Amino acid sequence: MDIHEGPVTVSDLPCRIKMDIPPQDNSLSNFFFVVGGVILAVGVGFIFFGPETIYYDRYEGMTFVQVLQAYPGPIATLGGLMMGLASKAAESGAAETNRHIDAFIMQNIHIEDSDIPTGFTLSMAQTGEPGVVLLSLEPKPAEEEAAPTSGM
What is the pTM of this model? Predict the structure, then answer.
């Protein structure tokens, strides 16, 4: 079956269409998520296992480890904040991909609910090729046909 060109209607089914989905690069947000997790773990570790008191030379100041021991709460908070922001960035990238897919479907699939025969549902399934999907009409499951819809 060749890849269908142009808008798809019920009379074209079953058909394969090519969806141009932009690649989603989460490497930067994944990096910040991992770094934030490490910072959070260090902060929480010093909260639970850090010393009661910290002794340091007033003239030389604190060492790096002593600073970590002195401020474990803000360090853990910073790590959690980094993880949250990285998650939010990854979610916004996924939302952008979903908006792109929705726009593609609205432009290229011209099938209304009233066009679909009774007892069937429109199916969109991935094929083995990247970006190519199979559109077809499939029978509705028996439970879905028999279940009454209520407005509760």
Answer: 0.63
